[in-house]
Amino acid sequence: MNWSNAITDYKHYLKIERGLSVNSIDNYVYDIKRLILFLEKNSNSISPIKIDNETVQQFIYKISKELSPRSQARIISGLRNFFNYLIFENYRATNPLDLIESPRLGRKLPDTLSIEDIDNLIDAIDLNYQYRNINLGHRNKAIIETLYSCGLRVSELTDLKISDLFFDEGFIKVRGKGNKERFVPIGDTTKKYILIWKDIRKHIDIDADAKDILFLNYKGHKLTRAMIFTIIKQLVKKIGLKKTVSPHTFRHSFATHLLENGADLKAIQMMLGHESITTTEIYTHIDRSHLNTVLNKFHPRKFVTKE
């Protein structure tokens, strides 16, 4: 078996057996191709069946000088899964990454925005902005409102369909990692701006593949992830905000603000689409001063000292 055949079979397995999204599959394959490129540069044509621990160690040593510990850990995990698949299919007997340890990672706390930051970003959107006679200002406002009020990943936002909107019931249907579906509550303000955009959207000549996609560009095509980043970057620059802001920052802010206002961690987990509540628990580490306030307010033995 050569690398091309192994990757083709593995992609099929990830899609059919694991139910992973196209983006997730591409990420797995990208890491395998990094290993292949390393082999080619070192004139090593060894197959995925014959590659040994020593060769993989050389590859890991090389990327350790180029990538962050977090990126290294992701690649090691991805390659370990790939070779486990080859073992499962009886193409090889051992995993060349069995003796390779991932770098230790500290828990990285996500960046968040204050409510004032978010209000300022939304207020900075020019609702009169048009391109080719299509009002994209209202679209941009609906995008930011949806990112923040529903806590979506950027891919979940760009994939959001009109048929996923259940406004009468107060929910939207979201397809998350692994194509797993969840229902997320949506507020009246966000619904208002989506409905405004839907009226504008009717005047666009929409591509056949995007008829049901909610957020489009002026050509009637589905928006790219890069376009969402660009919209946010321009707003951040416009208000002079000295923070690194990405679409995921709104998702983190969504979870943090819910927790700060007393939301149940399990409910936040469900809305974010986290498979494990351990992932959601990271938000309990963000604002310790808020936790002290909660303790003072609700615990029978408060920290307030009596005179």
UniProtKB/TrEMBL annotation:
CDD domains: INT_XerDC_C. The active site is at R153, K177, H248, R251, H274, Y283 (o-(3'-phospho-dna)-tyrosine intermediate). Keywords: Cell cycle, Cell division, Chromosome partition, Cytoplasm, DNA integration, DNA recombination, DNA-binding. Pfam families: Phage_int_SAM_1 (PF02899), Phage_integrase (PF00589). Site-specific tyrosine recombinase, which acts by catalyzing the cutting and rejoining of the recombining DNA molecules. The XerC-XerD complex is essential to convert dimers of the bacterial chromosome into monomers to permit their segregation at cell division. It also contributes to the segregational stability of plasmids. Belongs to the 'phage' integrase family. XerC subfamily. The keyword Cell division applies. It is found in: Cytoplasm. It comes from Winogradskyella immobilis. This is Tyrosine recombinase XerC. Residues 108-296 form the Tyr recombinase domain. Residues 1-87 form the Core-binding (CB) domain. Forms a cyclic heterotetrameric complex composed of two molecules of XerC and two molecules of XerD. InterPro entries: CB (IPR044068), DNA_brk_join_enz (IPR011010), Integrase-like_cat_sf (IPR013762), Integrase_catalytic (IPR002104), Integrase_recombinase_N (IPR010998), Integrase_SAM-like_N (IPR004107), Tyrosine_recombinase_XerC/XerD (IPR023009), Tyrosine_recombinase_XerCD (IPR050090).
